[in-house]
UniProtKB/TrEMBL annotation:
Signal sequence coordinates: none
GO cellular component: mitochondrial inner membrane; mitochondrial small ribosomal subunit
Keyword line: Mitochondrion, Ribonucleoprotein, Ribosomal protein
GO biological processes: mitochondrial translation
Family (UniProt): Belongs to the bacterial ribosomal protein bS16 family.
InterPro entries from the UniProt entry: Ribosomal_bS16, Ribosomal_bS16_dom_sf
Organism classification: Eukaryota, Metazoa, Chordata, Tunicata, Ascidiacea
Stretches the record annotates as Disordered: 156-177
Domain of life: Eukaryota
Organism of derivation: Phallusia mammillata
Protein name per UniProt: Small ribosomal subunit protein bS16m
Gene Ontology MF annotations: structural constituent of ribosome
UniProt-listed SUPFAM superfamilies: Ribosomal protein S16 (SSF54565)
Location of the protein in the cell: Mitochondrion
Length: 177
């Protein structure tokens, strides 16, 4: 019974390693930069392009209260819990302040360093870095903005149509009187 549970634990550990590592393309002849790091594997598939597997991710770690969230931007291993961190790279406050601003503080030098080592960026971090001008804008943000513009245009058309209908009703009521 003990041996069976130990084997199961080993399978889960190996599965986690395979499941959570991310692939990144590496420039040719740059494999030597990652040679000494045991957390990074450089390999190439049949196409001959070197790829990078890394266990590190830059992601959000939640702090604060349930009704007042506050996030630390951290470097962590991808298979660790949400709040474990190796290094804190910034903070993000999603609740708007008096001036309707969401505050974000980032350490760009350390983020550049970890991206150069192949750290995976989660979607919220890609969005924040895109909005800050560090990376290109995330495509999902562009799609969201376009849909928002369409929705506002439709709402304006509906309001103008309703106002025209109400004007016609008042004109017909005046004619009846």
């Amino acid at each position: 019974m003990v041996r069976l549970s130990w084997l199961l634990l080993e399978r889960v550990r190996n599965f986690r390693k395979l499941q959570t590592t991310r692939e990144r393309l590496v420039a040719r002849n740059a494999e030597c930069l990652f040679a000494g790091d045991e957390n990074i594997q450089v390999y190439s598939k049949l196409d001959g392009v070197p790829r990078l597997k890394n266990q590190y991710a830059i992601r959000l770690a939640k702090h604060g209260c349930p009704n007042r969230p506050f996030y630390h931007i951290v470097l962590a291993k991808t298979y660790d819990d949400r709040d474990t961190e190796i290094e804190q790279l910034g903070t993000y406050d999603p609740m708007p302040n008096i001036n309707n601003e969401k505050l974000c503080a980032l350490n760009f030098e350390r983020i550049k360093y970890h991206i150069a080592l192949g750290a995976y960026l989660t979607r919220p971090i890609r969005r924040l870095l895109g909005l800050s001008g560090f990376l290109p804008l995330d495509p999902t943000l562009l799609i969201f903005a376009e849909n928002l513009r369409r929705r506002k245009a439709i709402e304006q058309k509906i309001k103008s149509k309703e106002s025209e209908d109400s004007e016609e009703k008042t004109e017909t009521e005046k004619e009846v009187d």
